[in-house]
Specification:
The chain has three helices and two strands. Helix 1 packs across helix 2. It is mainly alpha-helical. It binds zinc ion (ZN).
Length: about 80
């Protein structure tokens, strides 16, 4: 179950209960905001690439990769 085991936060590296996506309570809200931006962009854009999505949303490629890895979004890996 989410939140019951501790993880090293994927963003700041602190040992923390997992708030989702392997992030702490401080980092998760901004990840969530970025996720919403990325998802909206990808939904409105056919065949968006990671680079285009990163430029359009201001979200880093690494963070977009993480979303793809967690199957939160589906996007071309270019
Ligand atoms: Zn963190």
């Amino acid at each position: 179950m989410k939140g019951n085991h501790k993880v090293w936060c994927d963003n700041c590296g602190k040992l923390t209960p997992n708030m989702g996506a392997g992030l702490c309570a401080d980092c998760f809200p901004s990840y969530r905001e970025d996720y919403i931006k990325v998802r909206q962009y990808v939904k409105g854009t056919h065949e968006a690439t990671m680079i285009e999505t990163s430029h359009a949303t201001g979200v880093s490629i690494n963070r977009i990769r993480k979303m793809v890895r967690e199957r939160a979004i589906s996007i071309k890996n270019t």
